[in-house]
């Protein structure tokens, strides 16, 4: 996707989705629930990165602060985590969550991954959870991630695996009620790197070495009802919320009933248990 005009339109759309005050409020409201639910994914990043005391880590597309906050605990004492995002509103949530957890080694910086405002070789590790799919110019973004790493430093990216997985049951139900446009060729979308090896190739072309990729099924659970899970999906899923809100009341009620029926299959006592399918992609700076 080399068309600069098209790239700019996609960039503005991504920024608009995640700068939406309703989205920011949703991530603030459900941040603790999301952190608990995806704790296994966050741990996978911390462990794969080899996060250790004293390191400087850059977290890209930090959202409400995960895995940045878990990384901050891993690199203390002496280490720091710089959380970045396109959305200043999201970064305000990161700061609030860091203060609540009494983490003094978290920095925030509004930044575009394609033009990182940091000197060469500034960080021992670069991490990104569920953000690489939305990089407008992946080659340029990965080149920047490589540039800011110290020699021998490591980057860890987690992206979604195939769409046919329990986590995306609500989206699968939604497709029966609304037309979800197919992404344009080369456009950023949630399953952009679902195919095994697709993101690895981007890293290799950018100059990363020792690139490897693992497809993982990671158990997840959250305390709460299907009703709260469906509300969380609505509040946090920026691209889908306008589609749901635009349904007539009767049709919306049908969607709600169908989504709740599908989610009940994961209920186990007072919580919901399922798994996520992700690709964990790692590369080193030579």
Give a topology summary.
Blueprint: H1 4-19, H2 21-37, H3 39-49, E1 56-60, H4 68-75, E2 80-85, H5 88-100, E3 106-110, E4 123-129, H6 138-148, E5 149-160, H7 169-174, H8 198-206, E6 209-223, H9 226-236, H10 241-245, H11 249-263, E7 267-268, E8 271-284
Parallel strand pairs: 1-2, 1-4, 2-3, 4-5
Antiparallel strand pairs: 5-8, 6-8, 7-8
Helix pairs in contact: 2-9, 6-8, 9-11
Which terms would index this structure?
Rossmann fold, 286 residues, eight-stranded mixed β-sheet, alpha/beta
Describe this structure in words.
- This protein has 286 residues and is an alpha/beta fold.
- The protein has a single domain, classed as Vaccinia Virus protein VP39 (Rossmann fold).
- Helices cover 43% and strands 23% of the residues.
- The chain contains eleven helices and eight strands.
- The chain has helices spanning 4-19, 21-37, 39-49, 68-75, 88-100, 138-148, 169-174, 198-206, 226-236, 241-245, 249-263; strands spanning 56-60, 80-85, 106-110, 123-129, 149-160, 209-223, 267-268, 271-284.
- Strands 1, 2, 3, 4, 5, 6, 7 and 8 form an eight-stranded mixed β-sheet that branches.
- It is globular and about 55 Å long.
- The mean pLDDT is 93.
């Amino acid at each position: 996707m080399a068309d600069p005009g098209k790239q700019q339109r996609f960039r503005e759309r991504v920024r608009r989705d995640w700068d939406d005050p309703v989205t920011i409020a949703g991530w603030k409201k459900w941040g603790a629930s999301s952190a608990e639910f995806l704790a296994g994914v966050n741990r996978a990043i911390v462990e794969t990165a080899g996060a250790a005391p004293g390191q400087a880590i850059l977290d890209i597309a930090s959202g409400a602060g995960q895995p940045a906050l878990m990384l901050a605990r891993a690199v203390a004492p002496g280490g720091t985590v710089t959380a970045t995002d396109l959305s200043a509103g999201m970064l305000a949530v990161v700061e609030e969550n860091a203060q609540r957890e009494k983490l003094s080694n978290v920095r925030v910086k509004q930044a575009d991954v394609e033009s990182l405002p940091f000197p060469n070789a500034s960080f021992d590790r670069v991490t990104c959870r569920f953000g690489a799919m939305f990089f407008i110019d992946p080659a340029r973004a990965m080149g920047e991630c490589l540039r800011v790493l110290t020699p021998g430093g490591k980057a860890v990216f987690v992206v979604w695996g195939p769409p046919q997985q329990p986590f995306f049951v609500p989206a699968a139900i939604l497709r029966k009620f609304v037309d979800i446009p197919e992404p344009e060729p080369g456009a950023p979308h949630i399953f952009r790197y679902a195919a095994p090896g697709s993101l690895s190739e981007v890293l290799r072309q950018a100059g990363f070495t020792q690139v490897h990729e693992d497809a993982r099924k990671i158990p997840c659970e959250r305390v709460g009802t299907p009703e709260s899970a469906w509300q969380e999906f609505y509040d946090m899923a920026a691209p889908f919320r306008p589609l749901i809100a635009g349904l007539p009341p009767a049709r919306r009620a049908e969607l709600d009933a169908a989504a709740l029926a599908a989610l009940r299959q994961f209920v186990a006592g007072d919580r919901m248990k399922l798994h996520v399918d992700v690709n964990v992609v790692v590369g080193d700076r030579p």
